[in-house]
Specification:
One of its GO terms (cellular component) is cytosol. The protein is an alpha/beta fold. The protein has 31 helices and 15 strands. The protein has two domains: 72 residues, no CATH class; 500 residues, Metal-dependent hydrolases (TIM Barrel), CATH 3.20.20.
């Protein structure tokens, strides 16, 4: 019956097709359609209304048919993995795994051999290895595409590792991380003895405490944390300074300082990549990051990582809480946390600054604080000129908080640094180089340091500016820090370089970009060669971590040149692009680090603002040659770069409250997504003066994130641990905060009695990362 019905249907179909008349064009429109049909004959993928140019072409890197079959491939992946994982018995699982691998390798080994590709594998949590050929597909075009994607990603990672190694920014490149590095003033002694504090579940605590105590020498000056800030620092304790070195330095024709041995000035001691090589490597990264199949692969892997973390939390949330309850004397409030991105001029909150200004107005109204228009002005005269008294001042009068009027208006945000909108008040209270030599800023800085030391568990890495306008900026800044004794165990410094060449050029402060390079780096090479030439700068640099590059990233970067000129020839009024600034910071820092490392001085790292707004090229530049970045919001739009940041665990200091006021609403911030996927993120405050309301802005940042994103105590402790590992503190300090083996991965490097992060969380993060790197 079925066969007869089918035969009848086939006969009707043939009869119907036979009765159809031949297609004859009856109009111009029909004629065009027939012409178009003839032109596209043989292209089955062409749909109505599509042009021939719209048809996806098959290349070595892209196959439209394979992409349409991607969902089927993923289904096969899920099925095959679940099929393997259902067998819990070790013997049966091993037998089945070998059987599957043997079948898969037999079917496609010839294909891989033809293309010269190695068989990729994935290490499972239980120690077994599964061939990726059984996971993805055994069809040649899919296997080859995955092989190409894998090689492209590895190429990006290899380029980055080359640049990081060359510039001495790696984890073991800094002499300050060595065991014999002396920190002056020394850190305070632990407030409680760990000898009998840890239960049997946490071995090794007492031995690490004793080792730390044994290494520390007894200082001649001690003070109680939070009191008499700077009184434990004496310049004489650091004398005599190291002697002059025999190596020499010079600025070459390309705008890069070259270090060489005496008598071999033409042979640089370190081969810094030329700007041409830099842009070629950058172009390689950008090309790979925009490749369609690679983007799809990275996007799916990131989705998988996020889903895997969600599943982990569902299965382990209560056990993590139980593990945390076993730890004595540790919770979120007393684990160390570092504010990895905060600007020094905005390190206090508005209430603190208001109290300080009122105090100075009441106690020292007749102090001369400003020289302007040929006149010396007292503090009372300055406020009289703006028609205000101490009684009139309030938070609203100061008007320094970034409200809704600053969203996407970076120009308005910069004006918020001026109290009451008056630049002269900013000069008096928030500048290091003014008529009173920055004394007011030093005093309020000591008050902030006192609060930090009293809290004990909060540290900061303050950004302070070197503009590159004059050659003596470094000496002035170092003198301000040393003379005011702004040294604290809770504080380290980064030097931020504002990208303001166009402003200096317009005001005739300089003629070429080379002058900025000289003003920034020449004093650093001089003090490295002979510390006695800039003694205060030598001492200050011991507390400096690295460089930051700051400005409004959303500014349009116009490409005026097919080939960028070298700095001595850059005399245009146009500001150089972001990549140009970063290259010359990186190139000169590479030479400087080589020399400083050879002399046993601490090296510097590059940690710029990046990815807050503007072009995604900035992120590729940072991935190429930077130690870590601040913000990184635009990574959400470039999945391949985000995946590369994950694989390399590049640090990202994120500030959701700052972004909420300037560029991105809080609920759209990708911070929580990055965290779940396993990127190396930490929380920071950016500008407490503009964004914070409380005395502890870092705790405020954590509190808001915990409420909005529903972070668990373990999540917050993990973020705190990330901030310590990202920071530029000495390795001996990190050992005291995180444990003696903090630099080891997974469970081996985690001491829960110090970090309050369960071992199972660390193991999950580590094994997930290993699996992704193996893919």
């Amino acid at each position: 019956m079925v066969d007869s019905t089918k035969s009848s249907r086939d006969q009707l179909s043939r009869d119907y097709q036979g009765d159809q008349p031949e297609s004859v064009p009856h109009s111009i429109h029909d004629n065009e359609k027939s012409t178009s049909s003839a032109a596209t004959e043989g292209h089955d993928g062409l749909q109505d209304g599509m042009l021939l140019r719209d048809l996806p072409k098959r290349t070595t890197f892209y196959d439209p048919v394979a992409e349409r079959q991607m969902s089927q491939t993923d289904a096969k992946l899920f099925y095959q993995r679940s099929k393997l994982e259902t067998h819990t018995s070790a013997v049966s699982l091993r037998d089945q795994n070998s059987q599957i691998e043997g079948t898969a390798n037999a079917s496609v080994s010839r294909t891989l051999t033809e293309y010269g590709a190695d068989t990729p594998t994935v290490d499972r949590d239980d120690g077994m290895t599964i061939s990726l050929l059984t996971i993805f597909d055994t069809e040649p075009h899919v296997t080859i595409e995955l092989s190409v994607i894998s090689k492209n990603i590895q190429k990006i990672l290899d380029i980055r590792r080359k640049y990081i190694a060359l510039s001495s920014q790696g984890p073991n490149d800094n002499p300050r991380d060595e065991q014999n590095w002396e920190i002056y003033p020394p850190p305070p002694e632990p407030a409680w003895s760990e000898t009998n504090a840890g239960p049997a579940d946490f071995p090794g605590v007492s031995s690490s405490a004793e080792a730390t105590k044994a290494k520390r020498s007894s200082p001649s000056h001690r003070r109680k944390p939070g009191f008499d800030v700077g009184e434990d620092f004496h310049m004489d304790d650091l004398l005599p300074l190291p002697a002059e070195d025999s190596m020499t330095f010079r600025l070459d024709e390309s705008g890069v300082y070259q270090v060489s041995c005496r008598g071999e000035e033409t042979l640089p001691a370190v081969q810094v990549p030329t700007i041409r090589q830099f842009y070629m490597d950058l172009d390689n990264i950008l090309t790979i990051s925009s490749d369609g199949p690679s983007k799809s692969f990275a996007f799916r892997r990131l989705q998988y990582l996020e889903a895997k973390f969600n599943l982990y939390v569902l299965l382990n949330e209560y056990q993590e809480t139980a593990d945390s309850k076993k730890v004595p004397h540790r919770d979120f409030y007393n684990v160390r946390k570092v504010d990895t991105h905060v600007h020094h001029s905005a390190c206090m909150n508005q209430k603190h600054l208001l109290r300080f200004i009122k105090s100075k107005m009441k106690k020292h109204p007749n102090e001369v604080v400003l020289f302007r228009d040929g006149k010396y002005l007292t503090l009372a005269e300055v406020f009289s000129s703006i028609k205000l008294t101490a009684y009139d001042l309030s938070i609203d009068t100061l008007d320094m908080h970034a409200h809704t009027d600053s969203f996407h208006r970076f120009d308005k945000f910069n004006l918020k640094y001026n109290p009451i909108g008056e630049s002269r008040l900013r000069t008096i209270f928030l500048k290091t180089d003014n008529f009173i030599h920055g004394r007011y800023l030093a005093e309020i800085t000591k008050e902030v340091i006192s609060d930090l030391e009293s809290s004990k568990y909060q540290m900061v890495e303050w950004r302070i500016s070197i503009y590159g306008k004059s050659i003596d900026e470094w000496d002035k800044l170092a003198s301000w820090v040393v003379d005011n004794k702004l040294f604290s165990h809770n504080v380290r410094w980064l030097i931020q370089i504002p990208r303001l060449y166009d402003v200096y050029k317009a005001s005739s402060l300089m003629n070429t970009f080379e002058q900025i390079v000289k003003n920034i780096f020449q004093p650093l090479f001089e003090v490295t060669k002979d510390p006695s030439s800039h003694p205060k700068l030598h001492v200050f640099l011991q507390r400096v971590i690295g460089f930051d590059s700051v400005d409004d990233e959303s500014k349009v970067e116009r490409r005026l040149f097919k080939k960028f000129p070298v700095p001595k020839d850059w005399d245009s009024k146009q500001n150089p692009p972001y990549s140009y600034w970063i290259y010359y910071l990186f190139a000169n820092m590479s030479s400087l680090n080589f020399w400083r490392k050879r002399r046993g001085f601490n090296t510097l790292v590059l940690r710029p603002h990046c990815g807050e707004a503007g072009d995604s090229e900035h992120l590729a530049v940072a991935l190429l040659c930077c130690h870590s970045i601040s913000h990184g919001l635009l990574l959400r739009k470039v999945p391949l770069l985000q995946y590369a940041f994950y694989l390399e665990q590049v640090g990202i200091a994120m500030s959701p409250l700052s972004n909420n006021a300037l560029f991105l609403a809080y609920e759209r911030n990708p911070f929580h997504q990055y965290f779940k996927r396993g990127l190396n993120v930490s929380l920071s405050t950016d500008d407490p003066l503009q964004f914070a309301f409380t005395k502890e802005p870092l705790i405020e940042e954590y509190a808001v994130a915990a409420q909005i994103y529903k972070l668990s105590p373990v999540d917050m402790c993990e973020l705190a641990k990330n901030s310590v590992k990202q920071s530029g503190y000495e390795a001996s300090i990190k050992r005291m905060w995180l444990g003696p083996d903090f630099d080891k991965p997974g469970r081996k490097g985690n001491m829960m009695v110090k970090t309050n992060v369960p071992d199972r969380r660390e193991e999950f993060r580590y094994h997930t990362l290993l699996q992704e790197r193996d893919v």
